Amino acid sequence: MPKEMREGKISEPNLEEQGIFPKRFKSHNDSVGIVSDYFRKNKKFGTEAELLERMEKPAENELGTIYVHTPYCDKICSFCNLNRKQIDNDLEDYTNFLVSEFEKYGKTPYMKSKKINVIFFGGGTPTIYKEHQLERILKAINDNFILTDDCEFTFETTLHNLNPKKIKVLEKGGVNRLSVGIQTFSDRGRKILNRTFSKEETVKRLRNLKESFSGMVCTDIIYNYPDETVEEVLEDARIVKDLKIDSTSFYSLMIYEGSQMSKDIRNNTLELNYELKKDFELHDAFLKSMLESGEYEVMEHTKIVRKGRDEYRYIRNTHQGKDILPIGVGAGGKIDNFEIFRLSQDKAFYAISSDENEMKMKRISGLLQYPKVYFDKLKEYVSDEMFNEIYKIFENFEKKGYLKIHETHTELMPEGIFWGNNISATILKKCLGGAKDVKSSSLFHINRKHKKNS
Question: Of 397, 440, 277, 389, nearest to 15 (Cα)?
Fold first, then answer.
């Protein structure tokens, strides 16, 4: 165990521990990356043969997740550089590959001893397959794995990739949650982000989807795209509430190397002037508008859910360190102590971790992703001395107005939700003895107009 986690690191609080952050972390990956970097030297690389050998024995934990990646789109968002490419074939070969992977791993004693309570198809655009291909893929899952009766089964999608036949195929195969990449309803914003359909057509199709699909309908919203106004982000919130969308992920625009936006910025054909004040203004307007009706609540830093509807078990399982079987090119996950990332149909990384402290730190990271952090849960992973140090940081954050300290837990205020990943990173670095910071995952996260928050 790192000495700091065992004994606590007693020191004067730095600026971040006082709630003064030099930049904003927009993604959970920015904070949990601190943990991955710290423990990277303790990992060794294994092989698929070693993984399959481990899977010849039953699993220790009953529940698990399957993540399936589809690295294809028929239209590329301007901000995206994820593991995807524009489709140039009918995906029959890739369908065969997925089916063979389900059969290979489904027959292992490890997976036969598990009940799958979460399946998540990400991308790319997983609804890009033809109906008969979707039928084969979904049948292979149901034939090769044991699913719980209440399994949360998600497909990410775009509106133009859905039709009544596909919706029926998905529902028949057990899909009960659709995550639609809306990003914004603004006509101007949709053009910037390279989305299909006008605002009017998008609302119409989303309304029809809500009526025709029996499961949950969720959306993604991006704010702070170039020159976005408060009026535009409030209109996005109004439409989400009016349609009674079951949950919405909302992210400040992140631009990555390799995306079309990054190329446009480098070629001076697109100007992006990131200002922290505006980022907060848009975030605050959207968040407060969503919460004012009383129908929605914050589930985690970037997820607002309709009360009594979306549980978003996929992210909960991830934060709790449960197994995630990764299937498909670009998929990442973990089986026991194997961390897996699939580079291609015949190549993958298998990192083996033998340090239980990495697991503890990732569980702490998971706890810190929610608006309420319960002290008894935190104390399961840190010493009393370290908890006292963390509590002092909480007190500093309370003075800044980021959170309130209750008898059993802390609770983030709206500004604290905005800084949520920075707060998480600060606590993680304290536990690791001041581990060095990580770069923001967004290429154009900060520019000359950015000023320190004080």
Answer: 397
The Cα 410–Cα 302 span in angstroms is 18
> Please, what sign has the CA dihedral across residues 395, 399, 403, 409?
positive
Q: Report the distance separating Cα 170 and Cα 213, nearest Å.
A: 9
The three-point CA angle 65-148-321 to 5° equals 30
Rounded to a whole number of angstroms, the distance between the first and last alpha carbons of the chain is 35
pLDDT at residue 15 in the model: 93
Residue 325: left (phi > 0), alpha (psi -120 to 50), or beta? beta
Phi and psi dihedrals of 425, rounded to 5?
Answer: -60, -40
Q: Where are the beta strands (DSSP E) in 301-440?
A: 303-306, 324-327, 332-335, 338-344, 347-352, 372-374, 403-405, 409-412
Q: In this prediction, what percent of the chain has a pLDDT beyond 70?
A: 89
Partners of 303 in the beta sheet? 249, 300
What integer pLDDT is reported at residue 442 of this predicted model?
39
Q: Kindly report the length of the chain.
A: 454
3-state secondary structure of 119: strand
Supply 431's token pair.
Answer: 């536990």
Residue 453 pLDDT: 32
Of 411, 79, 417, nearest to 279 by C-alpha is 417
Pair of tokens at residue 70: 């589809």
pLDDT confidence of residue 56: 98
What are the residue boundaries of the structural domains of the chain, listed by start? Answer: 11-42+356-432, 48-319
Closest by alpha carbon to 76, among 31, 37, 123, 22? Answer: 123
**Which residues in the chain land under pLDDT 50?**
1, 4-10, 83-84, 86, 438-454
CATH 3.80.30.20 fits 48-319, yes or no: yes
